[in-house]
Structures are given as C-alpha cells and as structure tokens.
Amino acid sequence: MVEVSVVTGASSGIGRALCIAIAHAKDRAGTQKHSPRRVVLAVARREEELQLLAKEVAEAQAGGSEVVPVAADITTQEGCDVVCDAVQRALLLWQTEAEPGGQSFYASHVVHCAGILENVGQSCLEIAPLDLR
C-alpha cells in the first residue's frame, strides 16, 4: 500500500516537522516492517529548503518513504494548480508501478500549515475570510 500525504508550509516549522514525522511513522504495532510506503508531497515556496528536507529524509532511510518537493505559492490559483497536478501525478505514477491486484493507493493526509496572517492582534472573528489565505 502507498499513502500519499500533502503538507503545505513544508519548508520550515510545523510543516517541515510533520513531513519528517509522516515519513518516519511506524505501523500500529510500532514497527516499520508492515508500514505502507509513504510519499509526502512537501509544498512550499522555498524550493531550496524543500530539497534539503527531501535529502534529509532520504539519507535517514525512512523505511522506503520519500519526500517529494513541490515548489508552489498556494496563495495563487497557479500555485494551487501545481499542487493538484503533483497529487495526480503521484497517485498515477505509483499506481502504474504496482502489480495488478497488489498495492492500493490513496491520499491519506492533507495538512495545511502554510499561512500568512497580516492582521496580527485581531480576533479570528474580525478577519475577513479572504485575508486568511
């Protein structure tokens, strides 16, 4: 089985930490022996940071898991399209690599950690929805 996770804001902070945690996650028995292969689509604007993250996970040999950098600005429609295309490519790629009747593929997590909040100090109820992007 292959789990595809999407994490935005992946170049630093909580998003980066979640990418690493998902890639290193163990199965419910506490081992990686029966864990699904995990593919983490790490989304952020800073491509260099994403490349470093992918290299770090690869060097740690995270039980066959990998981080795929997706450089995109999700505050734009263009950036959102890049992410959607990356998810579709990932699901199709790993699906075609599987043996018929073998592995199953699905998007297991979508974690949104990216954000710019210009109205610091205001209550969330006072901020217009368009300003929460």
End-to-end C-alpha gap: 33 Å
CATH fourth-tier homologous superfamily: NAD(P)-binding Rossmann-like Domain
Overall spatial form? globular
> What order do the helices and strands follow?
EHEHEHE
How confident overall, as mean pLDDT?
78
The spatial strand order of the largest sheet comes to: 3-2-1-4
- Radius of gyration over C-alpha positions, nearest whole angstrom: 16 Å
User: Into which percentage range does the β-strand content fall?
Assistant: 15-25%
Structural class given helices, strands, pairing?
alpha/beta
Give the topology, please.
Elements: E1 2-8, H1 13-24, E2 37-44, H2 47-59, E3 66-71, H3 77-97, E4 105-112
Parallel strand pairs: 1-2, 1-4, 2-3
Question: Could you characterize what this model shows?
Answer:
The structure is a single chain. Helix content is 35%, strand content 22%. The protein is an alpha/beta fold. It has a single domain (2-131), classed as Rossmann fold (3-Layer(aba) Sandwich). The chain has a four-stranded parallel β-sheet with strand order 3-2-1-4, with helices on both faces. The longest helix is centred in the middle third of the chain and has 21 residues, at 77-97. The chain starts with a strand and ends in a 21-residue tail after the last strand. The model has no long low-confidence stretch (mean pLDDT 78).
